[in-house]
Design goal:
Layout lengths: L1 H8 L2 H19 L5 H8 L8 H25 L11 H10 L3 H35 L3 H18 L4 H15 L2 E2 L6 E2 L13 H18 L23 H6 L1 H16 L5 H15 L11 H25 L5 H12 L8 H29 L1 H5 L6 H20 L3 H18 L5 H23 L9 H39 L1
Antiparallel strand pairs: 1-2
Length: about 500
Amino acid sequence: MILEGLLAVVQPFTIVLIAIGVVVGIIFGSIPGLTATMAIVMFLPATYSMTASQGISMLMALYIGGISGGLISAILLNIPGTPSSVATVFDGGPMAKKGQAGKALGTGVVFSFFGTIIGIALLVVLTPILCDVALMFQAYEYCALALFSLSMVIALTGHDMPKGLISAVLGGLLATVGLAPIDSRPRFTFGIYQMNNGFALVVLLIGLFAISEVMAYAETVRQRQDYTINEDFKIKGAGFSFKEFVEQIPNMIVSALIGVGIGILPGIGGGVSCMISYTVSKNTSKHRELYGTGIMDGVVASETANNGTVGGAMIPLLSLGIPGDAATAMLLGGLQVHNVAPGPLIYEKNGQVVYAIFFAMVIAAIFMLFFMLLGMRFFVRVLKVPKNYLLPVVLVLCGIGAIGEANMVFDTYVMVGFGLMAYLLVKAKIPTVPMILGFILGPTFEENLRRCSQLASSDPFWNHPIFCVLIVATILVVIFSVRSNIKDAKRAEQEELAKEQGSN
């Protein structure tokens, strides 16, 4: 079956399909609002006339290209192209502003490749093994996992913890809009039927990052802007040295494992994995104070994790038929179209297709590395475009992306509303990152908490050891994060006091 799967993929036509899928995926991923999911949705009908190996190989290429392409706009425009590239903005954007756009792009591309490869390797090894573990996760475990992830908010709040917590709570409240889980009662819809399904994550991200950026720029539109870029700017190789690569190997391995681990759990996705990985990398770093100022470590953590999530999300899809995120949900539809039934018997019934998927993912990762490194010099040129020309185009594309999420013009109004809210929050020095995490994890926590309350009398929590371990881990994370933030706040106060004394 392995050889048959390889032969099915190395056909010239299949290789061309994978290459096209990667390029299209990168384009969709790089444009804010046009995600990998949208690329798969648009090209799924085109695979109907193909064989199973050809069609699914192309869809996998779209998936990998779309997830990887988000780093382009995250670094060059300071706007995440996909939810999975949110954390890339934190250091990728500042690196570009410091004249290190080439290094940031090279770092993102190379470590996206290694994150994908590590994810694929673990996919091949763990798919038949971890299906039993995934089946053990019930309401208690999912509730504890969401709580553990939400505890990371404390680590993302910086020196002003109350403002960070306000942001996280606000994100959780926004997630309650729409039909309630379990009983499906409408909440905070105010009779507007378009709000029954709640706010889309993509629309929220576009508003928080893109629209607020346009609004902030409008304040300086009458000021003279310097758009010149050093003409001597050069990129050697991948943009970083071999020594720097070796130094990042531990960060890469940990981030990839986090990405795969989060990807295995259905419904979590790359948006959470990249932020958790970024937080872990920051908390374990010897120079954590440099995170957010433009440091290679932050880009490595984010991009390795979100691409590792690709392989992780495929594990429950292939072994259990449970999609790990929105993109794999569309891939599930692609498998069903080609009469491939995911589940414990997939290796016996469709072994050739399974191995074809593995080989297609590897080839797609290689193509992604090649195309993005080849085009990196051209991507950097985007920095030379004046913002007064670029941002209106971005605004239009964001509007198209918002409408394309659910084919509703109403989402454009929501997008503008979130942009205005983010603009005001930035003015009040309230971080928006905890809001994203609260928005993503809020529904998971609420739904499973309600299920836990229903099961508490007949199935107490001490019967769930995984739940207990996650709760203990949550408590430890909170204690560690609070102590670290208190130390950082004291250090900042001492530095500020020293500056005041020096000025006097």
